[in-house]
Amino acid sequence: MNLEVDNIHVTLSGTNIVKDISLCVKSGQFIGIIGPNGCGKSTLLKSIYKVIKPKQGSVFLDGSDVLKSSPRSISRKMSVVGQFNDLSFDFTVHEMVMMGRTPHKNLMESDNKEDYEIVDAALKKVNLSSYSNRSYLTLSGGEKQRAILARAIAQEPKFLVLDEPTNHLDIKYQLEILSIVKSLKIGTLAALHDLSLAATYCDILYVIKKGKVMASGKPDNVLTKELVKQVYEIDCEIYTNPVTGGLAIAYFPPVD
Ligand SMILES: Nc1ncnc2c1ncn2[C@@H]1O[C@H](COP(=O)(O)OP(=O)(O)OP(=O)(O)O)[C@@H](O)[C@H]1O
């Protein structure tokens, strides 16, 4: 399922936050959005999953006009893992993950055997099977993040949007979450902060500064020390990790 985002402009409280951004995610691709705090990553993603109405532009998911479609019809195809995932009520982890089935059900339709199997499989995938009956609100930040991913997986999406999905996670779970997402083999658009992880997992990166795309392409081509300096205002050295063979970045703290 392909996502086509064209010429998106978002204005909030009179300020232009997203300025003419276009991007494309082909089926099975993992596309990363990187850029400094406040550059507009979340705003762009929210305009794609219909929480914010863009001033201009279009979003098409597999030919369907996302901005003109009902939230329900989009949620049958697209799952979202946002940055802030707190619930106001005390659901169990199982109940919370079962909410991922809602877009596929009619009003008043009860959960069936297949729903239970899908939820159990999703909990297993994120290593939370033994947390099924725990209160969601008592989970740690990292456990909550994995439960939210399980809910997104239970939704059986054809496309996934992730807004900093590795927030709160220790390194094991950062790697695990991104590996799980990659293993789904569906189109994924993710805002990420860690440039090394972005280089490892993403097929294509879009680099944003002040609401504009500064560069895009394969991580090896895009991530240069000049670009990091230009976008993040920090000196670094980029090299090939001798152990993994992947791209590695050494940052130099600013000196007075
Ligand atoms: N409702 C709003 N009204 C005015 N400005 C807003 C509003 N919502 C967000 N902004 C501003 O838009 C800018 C972009 O915010 P956004 O959350 O998209 O950035 P981000 O790149 O996701 O940042 P971070 O990496 O810190 O999560 C920020 O300066 C933010 O303060």
Automatic annotation (TrEMBL):
Pfam families: ABC_tran. InterPro entries: AAA+_ATPase, ABC_transporter-like_ATP-bd, ABC_transporter-like_CS. GO terms for molecular function: ATP binding. Keywords: ATP-binding, Nucleotide-binding. Residues 3-235 form the ABC transporter domain. The keyword Signal does not apply. It comes from the Bacteria. SMART domains: AAA (SM00382). This is ABC transporter ATP-binding protein. It comes from Tissierella simiarum. The lineage of its organism: Bacteria, Bacillati, Bacillota, Tissierellia, Tissierellales.
